[in-house]
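Researcher: Go.
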Amino acid sequence: MSAFTLDDLFRIASSATGEPMDSAPPEQLQDTTFSDLGVDSLALLETATRVELETGVEIPDSQVPLLESPRLFLEYVDRRLMESA
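Model: Structure:
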């Protein structure tokens, strides 16, 4: 996978929560906390697991709570993708 996008993250998080994310464009929500977006800690762990499966990037469970916003989550995944390239 060459890049992991904000749209990818929102697609996966929506699937993990079973509900669509906020209807605003993802770019406007990238600094909003996941809890404010309706993603609880269990759904965030599920999102991380699904991201791992899709991208091959390992996200330790201990790291997940630190990825509080879509921007932080995306930066983490993209950094790991670049390191493995």
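Model: The mean pLDDT is 90.
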